[in-house]
Write a structure and sequence with these properties.
Length: about 350
């Protein structure tokens, strides 16, 4: 292979390694690294969990003396600051590598080009931007939090073929099949926070936890329990609800004041959703927020342009016109007011179909 083909191959390998940390690195980004000497991979690694060695350190440890004069391919710019671990840029300089290619610069203001600059000052050739779009897909939440101070919000919904999410009585178990429900567990597992509303808790008494094991699901690393959060403006959710008895922490956002409740400003007599998301990003370093809620909360998030991605599981049955719809958005009256979506993917999950769409505000 020629030089350009080689660069693409190895940076692609680094991105694939980064994906192994999909479920375990919160609040850090998922990063992979490959070290190549004379067209041979001599070291590779990925960031496995926050507080542990970064991808470059795993790869350098594997490469040992062979790192000297080698080319390093990394999915995200090497860090240049002291955090929970020493700067990776310093480790690469000490190892004597000759060239560093990263798929993208780090959006973290503490790095943001400083890692590449430090490497360049040490005489190491650097490049950035190769397969950047592919690298960005691994860390949508980390990138958004660093750039805007808000998490990436992913809304999950299940519906019948005629667009219904629950019967008029509120009954909704189960619209989709086992394969789709297992797929949702993976979405929860990759998220920092699982967010729901009081109406969903009152109707279904859900646990909202991750109920799959890494080994059984073929996933890498030990799965964490995401933080759970409830939007409960009027404090209607009973303290003995299942969501409070699971491993990990459950937050309650309300407009009311009470012990162990996070009181936020009101917006239209309800919790200010933007304030809730800012709180999750700043106080809990939340990268990705996974929303499983009813039509009112999902509709409010969409109306306020706070949703980044919608995932809908569509089941092959009809529930009738008295059943409940996907989004409660009463302000829409005319065709000109409709919200455009870009469909990114449609794929079968068991007997159901998963539609992934991005709002175009």
């Amino acid at each position: 292979m020629n030089s350009l083909q080689g660069d693409h191959f190895y940076i692609s390998k680094a991105i694939q390694l980064a994906e192994k940390g999909l479920y375990t690195t919160q609040p850090n980004p998922r990063v992979g690294c490959v070290i190549v000497l004379n067209n041979e991979i001599v070291g590779e690694g990925y960031h496995q969990q926050a507080g542990g060695p970064h991808a470059e350190i795993h790869a350098l440890n594997q490469a040992a003396d062979k790192a000297k004069g080698a080319t390093v391919y990394v999915s995200l710019e090497p860090c240049s600051h002291q955090g929970k671990t020493p700067p990776c840029a310093d480790a690469l300089i000490a190892a004597g590598v000759s060239r560093v290619i990263c798929a993208m610069q780090d959006p973290n203001p503490l790095v943001a080009g400083k890692g590449l600059a430090k490497l360049g000052q040490a005489g190491i050739k650097t490049e950035a931007g190769l397969m950047q779009a592919e690298a960005e897909k691994i860390n949508p939440g980390f990138i958004k939090r660093m750039q805007t101070g808000l998490p990436y919000v992913r809304v999950k919904l299940a519906m019948s073929l005629d667009g219904r999410t629950a019967m008029a009585s509120g009954e909704s178990k189960w619209i989709t099949g086992e394969a789709a429900r297992a797929d949702v567990q993976k979405l929860r597992a990759r998220s920092s926070v699982v967010l729901t509303g009081s109406a969903t808790v009152l109707a279904d008494d859900p646990a909202m936890n991750v109920r799959i094991s890494a080994k059984a699901s073929g996933l890498s690393g030990a799965l964490h329990q995401p933080l759970r959060a409830i939007i409960d403006s009027q404090l209607r959710v009973p303290v003995d609800s299942k969501i409070f008895s699971q491993d990990g922490q459950t937050l309650v956002f309300s407009t009311q004041s009470a012990e162990h409740v996070i009181t936020l400003p009101e917006k239209d007599n309800k919790v200010d959703l933007l304030a809730a998301l800012k709180y999750l990003a700043t106080q809990h370093q939340a990268n990705e927020v996974h929303v499983e809620a009813g039509s009112e909360l999902c509709g409010a998030l969409l109306t306020q342009q706070l949703v980044d991605e919608i995932i809908i599981y569509m089941a092959p049955h009809i529930m009738g016109d008295s059943a409940k719809g996907l989004f409660h958005m009463p302000g829409l009256q005319n065709m000109s007011e409709r919200l455009d979506l870009e469909i990114k993917e449609i794929r079968p999950i068991g007997k159901d179909w998963r539609v992934t769409a991005v709002p175009r505000y």
